[in-house]
Amino acid sequence: MKSEMKMKDQTNKLIFKRLGIHTQNEHHAYMREDCHVCVSEGFEALTRIRVFNGEKSIVANLNVIRSQILQPGEISLSESAVAALSVKEEAIISVSHLHPIKSLSHVRSKIYGNTLSSKQMDEIIRDIVRGDYSNVFLSAFITACAGKGMQTNEIISLTEAMIATGQRINWGPKIVVDKHCIGGLPGNRTTPIVVSIVSSFGLTIPKTSSRAITSPAGTADTMEVMTEVNLSMEQIIEVVDKEDGCIVWGGTAKLSPADDMLIKVEKALDIDSEGQLIASVLSKKVASGSNQIVIDIPVGETAKLRSTHAANELKSEMEKVGNAIGLKMKVVISDGSQPVGRGIGPALEARDILAVLRNAPHAPQDLKERALLLAGEILELSGKVQYGDGLKISRDLLDSGMAYEKFVAICKAQGRFSEPETAKYQYEIKAESAGTITKVDNRRLAKIAKLAGAPENKTAGIDFLVPIGTKVEKEQTLYLIHAESKGELNYALEYYNSQKEILTIQ
Amino acid sequence: MKSEMKMKDQTNKLIFKRLGIHTQNEHHAYMREDCHVCVSEGFEALTRIRVFNGEKSIVANLNVIRSQILQPGEISLSESAVAALSVKEEAIISVSHLHPIKSLSHVRSKIYGNTLSSKQMDEIIRDIVRGDYSNVFLSAFITACAGKGMQTNEIISLTEAMIATGQRINWGPKIVVDKHCIGGLPGNRTTPIVVSIVSSFGLTIPKTSSRAITSPAGTADTMEVMTEVNLSMEQIIEVVDKEDGCIVWGGTAKLSPADDMLIKVEKALDIDSEGQLIASVLSKKVASGSNQIVIDIPVGETAKLRSTHAANELKSEMEKVGNAIGLKMKVVISDGSQPVGRGIGPALEARDILAVLRNAPHAPQDLKERALLLAGEILELSGKVQYGDGLKISRDLLDSGMAYEKFVAICKAQGRFSEPETAKYQYEIKAESAGTITKVDNRRLAKIAKLAGAPENKTAGIDFLVPIGTKVEKEQTLYLIHAESKGELNYALEYYNSQKEILTIQ
Q1: Is residue B10 less than 8 Å (CB to CB) from chain A?
Q2: A210-237: buried (b, 16+ CB within 10 Å) or exposed (e) per residue?
């Protein structure tokens, strides 16, 4: 850094002009081709530079401007860079060459199949959090770690590095519980129900959830339909102090900023590797101050985990990493053969959650029973109820309406309670023959929901009416596609039309 | 494609406004946040879209504009996208959602360690050449294929796919020779000398070279100091018809456009994997119409190949792939313990080449002997000279001045012949003690040359005066750092100062 500071001399000063360009997840800088800095420092296209505003600095991709949108001596920055540097219009900012980023040699080492030390992993994650990695590097790191690319010790190091580079909540010496489901099962939105039951029992459960990575909705996307989820660390603490629980997005609180940055690229790549997954989940649990965790791994032919063998491997790896970082854990392997509940997509899942919490007659029983089971496991793991009593106590809390009251109280504490809305466009998919539903392809159902606009469009998704075992007539509605625009509805339908049967009727 | 065409309806039409933004190797589109297309189609940040101008279409990253640089109904594009779509100011262009890119599922399969079929590899390379892969995807593909990531059959498929997606020169049934050196040895610029000797003998040698990937100069960078290297296919054919040889950059001729696109990202990642390397080299040889190839693999502790074992593995893999695609090959493993010649960097290497070709008294003998050896191997491989006579005949052609005459003729046929210039700033690195040079760290010398500005700045680099075995006095100059700006000279010196000894003096 010393040398980079040295290069911040007068010749590198430029006047900032705001152009209002929102780029994607990378910072960009815009400089004139004829600018004296470009010429004297020999900048060219395909270059990354360091940009300084006072003591703050960031790395940005250089874009060269050949037009009048910038005048001589001016520089512009993408809006993310403007925010990161807190730079005001007409401020004088400076730029310099980017020094080689040392931790990239560790990434290259990983690409060539070597095992990274805890120190190397820590250096990589620190540089990522500082914003020094371009998408090209993030993608290379994720890819090199994917598949069977990581040893247990590397996953532990990655988890610890993610914890070390984020904020961490300290709840004192008390028991703090949490739960997590290893996704892949459309509509499996047990979290809001479990948190409501467990916190109505009086246990502390500061639940942070992710947004969708490769699925049509993450718990945070679904909760956002009903309440605010972008809470700061201070706001989370306030809600949990008051209600014993919360259900928020983990990103705003900067619990694991490295993970938030990696997830954007994982989403673009549509991969979610075992090592990254374990580090992502457990780092956020530790950061949010939990010490007892129940993990649910659904297994099914088209779930994220396709075989009990693979689920057991993941379970064993998670337990090793969890123990290494001091967590008390219970990993449950569950049935993942079909969607849970009826809705797939944020608003439709929110509707199902409220139906269960309100004990509505049409509430999806499968969602209810899964939530009760997990809540029971948490109560038992905590040692506050006798082994064998967890499920019954959970059911009482739900049936009595106490869990629903707690849910509404939590939502209000988070900022608002809103009822879910319904999408403008709906399209019924009907049975082409009569018979019994014997198989459901979760992945392709999820894909239709995504093509219809979920999770970006909250009310988009699928309303799935016929769980395995349902007897259907010809022309009976199997599921409805919900979309906010005709374009997206057509988009989803077009994919639907290009596919062989997604539900098997025999 | 059918459906994407369908979505090109009237509502998606926008007026193009040129903003003169040169982005890096990805296409970018700029659209207003309030634009009816953004709203009706639900575009958001982190999105890639398809942009149409008549029948042409490209994929671009979407940037959202919140300022007055675009008016309602306007769209802008990065200059690379403007060129790819041949779009004129105020043209009406249209946009649509991007359909999922099918071959990305093959990339994901590769990430998870599966072997790709020839068909899958072909689909990936076609989509890359079409520009459908973002940097994130290119990086993931390169990373997944790096290390020991590729089977021989996959390298063959990759090579064939690169050939199939580029142009290919047909020289008729005659013998067409070529040579290639697997880099990693600073200053090892034998190609221009070898081509001059071989073509003055009368063999056809249409040599296409690469620019630097991770080194301070590629042959194309060095040749560009003395002549034009950005020749079209037609121009290459004209030069070779006239002079029997050429020394041009392979990129402009679009011999292997996939390789050109991958190399940009490999350069950013600073990796150059075995499979990509073999496919890159051999695809370009076949595309340029060669059927007999001599490959030089220098081996040394700090060369690209560090052990004879690794060099033999690469030799064997190259021979397998070469044979599979119908090439007659000879692979030579050579000494790579230190730089070749004196110059490291485009202009300094050009100076050495000219000294050898002109039989100047101070010409670097190591460079000369390496070039003669390789030229001799090519003559013998062709069957046009007796086994054992190649070296002698090559030496005659060089000593007689015929090779130099041919070199100048080739340069003139390519567009010009210019003498290399010298950098404005030079800094002498002196011996801290007396003794004999016993070891040279090629990698760190190359790094200093790169930090000094090579290859972007042609005259930047290192003038290396003391090959292994040289006896030096204390304070004797070991090498000079050449740079075009003070900033870059300081930049290189700073790295130099941070390092332990780069040359070992005993």
Answers
A1: no
A2: bbbbbbbbbbbbbbbbbbbbebebebbb
Q: CA torsion angle for B18, B20, B24, B27 (degrees, to 10)? A: 0
From the list B64, B74, B264, B248, the residue with the least C-alpha distance to B169 is: B248
- Residue numbers in B near A135 (CB within 8 A): 134-136, 139
- Considering chain B, tell me which residue range(s) the CATH 3.40.1030.10 domain(s) occupy: 177-253+288-414
| CATH 1.20.970.10 correct for A104-164 | yes
- Contact call for residues A231 and A246 (beta carbons, < 8 A): yes
ipTM: 0.81
pLDDT tens string, chain A, 506 residues long: the values are: 334 434 444 457 899 999 999 887 789 999 998 776 666 555 554 578 899 998 899 999 888 898 999 998 899 999 989 999 999 988 999 888 787 889 999 999 999 889 999 999 999 999 999 889 999 999 999 999 997 689 999 999 999 999 999 988 999 999 999 999 887 677 789 999 999 999 999 999 999 988 887 789 999 999 999 999 999 989 999 999 999 999 999 877 778 889 888 988 888 888 888 899 999 999 989 998 999 999 999 998 877 888 999 999 999 999 999 999 999 999 999 998 888 889 999 999 999 999 999 999 999 999 999 999 999 999 999 999 999 999 999 999 999 999 999 999 999 999 999 999 999 999 999 999 999 999 999 889 998 999 899 998 999 999 999 999 999 999 999 999 999 999 889 989 988 998 888 999 99
Q: Is B3 on the interface with A (CB under 8 A)?
A: yes
Tell me if B19 and A69 make a contact (CB, 8 A cut-off): yes
Residues of B in Cβ contact (< 8 Å) with A265: 136
Return the DSSP state at A305.
B
| B residues 123..182 contacting A (CB < 8 A) | 134-140, 142-144, 146-148
Can you count the helices (H) and strands (E) in chain A?
A: 19, 19
Q: Which residues in chain B are closer than 8 Å to A484, comparing Cβ atoms?
A: 42
Kindly state the tokens that stand for B166.
């580029």
Residue B59: φ, ψ to 5°: -105, 135
CATH fold of the domain at B101-165+255-281: 1.20.970
For the domain covering A2-97, report its CATH number: 2.40.40.20
CA distance B253 to chain A (A): 21
Within 8 A of A30 by CB-CB distance, chain B residues are 21
CB-nearest partner of A135 from B20, B108, B135: B135
In the CATH hierarchy, which top-level class contains the domain B425-505? alpha beta
Whole-structure pTM value: 0.83
Neighbouring C-beta atoms of residue B480, cutoff 10 Å: 17
Q: Is domain B177-253+288-414 annotated with CATH 3.40.640.10?
A: no
Q: Please say if the pLDDT value at position B16 is more than 50.
A: yes
Contact at 8 Å (CB) between A111 and B271? Answer: yes
Taking the CA of residue B379 and the nearest CA in chain A, the distance in Å comes to 38
A108 to chain B, any CB pair closer than 8 A? The answer is yes
Residue A145 distance to chain B (closest CA, Å) = 9
